[in-house]
Amino acid sequence: MSEFEKMSLGLEFDATSSEFTELRNEAFDLLKDINSRQFEAAKPYVAQLFKHVGENTIVCPPFLCEYGKNISIGSNTYINMGVTMLDNAPITIGNDVLIGPSVQFYTPTHSLDHRQRKNWKFQCLPIVVEDDVWIGGNAVICQGVTIGARSVIAAGSVVTKDVAPDTLVGGVPAKFIKTTR
Questions:
Q1: Which pLDDT tens digit goes with each residue over 35-94?
Q2: CB–CB of 107/125 below 8 Å?
Q3: 110 is catalytic
Q4: Which residues pair with 58 in a beta bridge?
Q5: Domain extents for the chain?
Q6: What pLDDT, on a 0 to 100 scale, did the predictor assign at position 45?
Q7: How far apart are alpha carbons 121 and 118 in whole angstroms?
Q8: Arithmetic mean of pLDDT over the chain
Q9: What span, in angstroms and rounded, lies between the C-alpha atoms of 64 and 146?
Q10: Which one of 15, 58, 104, 111 is CB 3.0 to 4.6 Å from 116, fit for a cystine?
Q11: Domain Maltose/galactoside acetyltransferase, which positions (predicted)?
């Protein structure tokens, strides 16, 4: 099993492996191509960068990620400008999702123990955004979170826990506001 696969599964891995440098360099080259083009012209590079991208999905530049190959995006999804995805574990975005500008997706986290941070130890957990979700601008989606179908994340929220389907959440940390149905 590769070090990247271990990291993606949340297992212990060697963060100093040259494998990560190679993968980051590949992603960086594709990101340069994506971020120098608009919509249709960027699509072939988006398809190379991501593990999966559905039909009619738009990724607005600038877009940033660490590897790209851990990102799967459904069809008819719109990712606005300035979105960052730290895809050390899988990030799965469903169909018909709207992601506002400057939204951040963080799959890794570091230990509270300073000694472990000195050794670059961190844990990675996946993020899942189900179908028909709207995430407002400047929201932060933290590791291990699943956002249920048809939910709305208010702008500027920090989502640290799962969000039930058909729910509006907001705040820091994000809290239940009301149901959307």
A1: 999 888 999 999 999 999 999 999 999 999 999 999 999 999 999 999 999 999 999 999
A2: yes
A3: yes
A4: 78
A5: 3-179
A6: 96
A7: 8
A8: 94
A9: 21
A10: 111
A11: 4-55
| The pair of three-digit structure tokens given for residue 159, joined into one six-digit string | 């989502």
One-letter-per-residue 3-state SS of the chain: CCHHHHHHCCCCCCCCCHHHHHHHHHHHHHHHHHHCCCHHHHHHHHHHHCCEECCCCEECCCEEECCCCCEEECCCCEECCCEEEECCCCEEECCCCEECCCCEEECEEECCCHHHHHCCCEEECCEEECCCCEECCCCEECCCCEECCCCEECCCCEECCCECCCEEEECCCCEEEEECC
Omega before 173 within 30 of 0, i.e. cis? yes
Specify the CATH number of the domain 3-179. Answer: 2.160.10.10
Residue of 32, 110, 161, 175 marked catalytic: 110
Cβ count within 10 A of residue 36: 12
Give residue 119's identity as a one-letter amino acid code. Answer: N
Q: What's the CA gap between 37 and 171, in Å, rounded?
A: 34
Tokens of 122: 């961190």
d(CA 35, CA 45): 10
Backbone angles phi, psi at 73, to 5 degrees: -130, 135
| pLDDT tens track for 55-68 | 999 999 999 999 99
